[in-house]
Amino acid sequence: MDEIRLEDWEARAPPSLRADSLWNVKAYRLALYLADLAWRDSAHLRRTAAGRALHDQLLRATASIGANIAEGYSRGTGKDRARFYEYALGSARESRDWYFKCRAALREEVVTARLNALSEVVRLLLAMIPDQRKQMRDDSADYDV
User: Fold this and answer.
1) What confidence tens digit (pLDDT) does each residue in 24-80 have?
2) What is the pLDDT of residue 134?
3) pLDDT score at 50
4) Would you state the pLDDT for residue 140?
5) I need a surface site. Which of 2, 40, 48, 145 has the fewest CB within 10 A?
6) Domain limits at 29?
7) Residue 136's pLDDT is what?
8) Cα(122)–Cα(90) distance, rounded to whole angstroms?
9) Number of compact structural domains in the chain
């Protein structure tokens, strides 16, 4: 199965997704892309008994990353956004763990590419979370009018 490049995948994403301001969040786009790739990868995993035991966990973990970013993005305060971005961070790390465990059933270059992309999501979220926590402090500041 040929690999889909992120740029090609983004170009084919539905206009309704691309029109939403959430689309500007790189971690979200990358999470959606990884969830699509995990779906494709799961076809290979289901070929073996061991892979069948892992594929459901992989799909759930990768799907959870983007879902939590989307929910957090829609929250009204930095504190709420940070909480959901932390959930997404946990799911990204969990997904990385599942891909590592699936390495016997997938090609080495596929696993390496997925681990690298998930590490980028982790890096992006680790930058986003403190930024939202800072906004949390700003949200609660007292201002004299």
Assistant:
1) 999 999 999 999 999 999 988 888 887 888 999 999 999 999 999 999 999 988 899
2) 86
3) 79
4) 52
5) 145
6) 25-139
7) 52
8) 9
9) 1
What is the token pair recorded at 114? 């997925």
Residue 53 lies in a domain: yes
Residue 8 within any structural domain of the chain: no
Ranges of beta strands (E only) in 92-144 are: none
Tell me if 5 is assigned to some domain: no
Q: What is the mean pLDDT of residues 5-29?
A: 96
Whole-angstrom Cα distance, residue 140 to residue 7?
39
CA distance 41 to 107: 10
Copy the structure tokens of residue 85: 């971005």
Confidence of residue 143 (pLDDT cuts 50, 70, 90): very low
Is a pLDDT exceeding 60 seen at residue 97? yes
At 4, is the secondary structure helix, strand, or coil? coil
Q: Which two tokens stand for residue 99?
A: 């891909």
The DSSP code sequence of the chain is -PPPPHHHHHHTS-HHHHTSGGGG-HHHHHHHHHHHHHHHHHHHHTTSHHHHHHHHHHHHHHHHHHHHHHHHHT-SSHHHHHHHHHHHHHHHHHHHHHHHHTTTTS-HHHHHHHHHHHHHHHHHHHHHHHHHHHHHHHHT-----
Supply the CATH number for residue 132's domain: 1.20.1440.60
One-letter amino acid for residue 86 of the chain:
E
